[in-house]
Design brief:
It comes from Natranaerobius thermophilus (strain ATCC BAA-1301 / DSM 18059 / JW/NM-WN-LF). Keywords: Membrane, Transmembrane, Transmembrane helix. There is one protein chain. This protein is mostly helical and about 110 residues long. The protein has one domain (about 5-105). It has four helices and no strands. The protein has helices at about 5-30, 35-55, 60-75, 75-105. It starts with a helix and ends in a 5-residue tail after the last helix.
């Protein structure tokens, strides 16, 4: 497997894991704290989506710097590659929200 596809799969998986793991642990904390665990889990999943994206990319500064250097250096393949990595991470985070929503019996949008 090439480095590109390997990185894409890792970005997807990290974002998925951050949303699912964070939501379940947050829901556990909510039930210990006397809050409604299912609603809290759904809320946490939505809030974690952007942070899962950032975590899976290893921080946004490297990605933004590579996009900038790609534009300035005329290397559009670098820009496209970074945008695909961002899309993969977003799909992982959104998939996590859909899975949490399905498990909690909420809205699947």
């Amino acid at each position: 497997m090439s480095t590109f596809f390997g990185t894409l799969i890792v970005n997807f998986s990290i974002a998925l894991g951050v949303v699912i793991g964070g939501s379940f642990i947050g829901g556990l904390g909510a039930s210990i704290g006397g809050q409604p665990p299912i609603q809290t889990t759904l809320t946490i999943a939505e809030k974690l989506k952007i942070w899962a994206l950032v975590a899976s990319l290893g921080g946004t500064f490297t990605t933004i710097k590579e996009i900038e250097m790609g534009f300035l250096g005329g290397q559009l393949h670098t820009v496209v590659k970074q945008l695909i990595f961002i899309l993969g991470a977003f799909l992982g985070a959104h998939s996590g929200v859909i899975i949490i929503s399905f498990i909690a019996g909420g809205n699947n949008s």
